[in-house]
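ZP: hey, is the zinc ion complex queued? I don't see it on the tracker
AM: it wasn't, my bad. submitting now with these inputs:
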Amino acid sequence: MSCIFCKIVNGEIPSNKVYEDDKIIAIHDLNPQAPVHVLVIPKEHIACADDINESNCEVIGHLFSKIPVIAKELNLDGYRIINNCKEVAGQTVMHLHFHILGGKPLGEKIV
Ligand code: 5GP
Ligand code: ZN
């Protein structure tokens, strides 16, 4: 499997971990776009948000239940959650992940 995030999940590629449990990891982004830029990643390989379905969606609820825990760990008061779904929307790593951005006032607009 040539997926970068699968390699990070199984330890083949090192990462700066913020949080880990049996279902998800959160790591600092290699190329941060804000003072705090963390990626929350399900360990299971799901390519993108468009591939979430009834049989694999449990991990998504779990992941979102841990975002406040991760945000607290990072001392974030508020934050933006972003998911890029497929190449046309800017997804460059085809393993589902949610960006958590914060550490400064972000403004109201995303695009
Ligand atoms: P996307 O554009 O797919 O939504 O986001 C992919 C993110 O993964 C980018 O922000 C990029 O900087 C980050 N990224 C790519 N490769 C690595 C890596 O090997 N380690 C870490 N920590 N982040 C990565
Ligand atoms: Zn993967």
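AM: back. The longest helix spans residues 58-73.
ZP: great, adding it to the tracker
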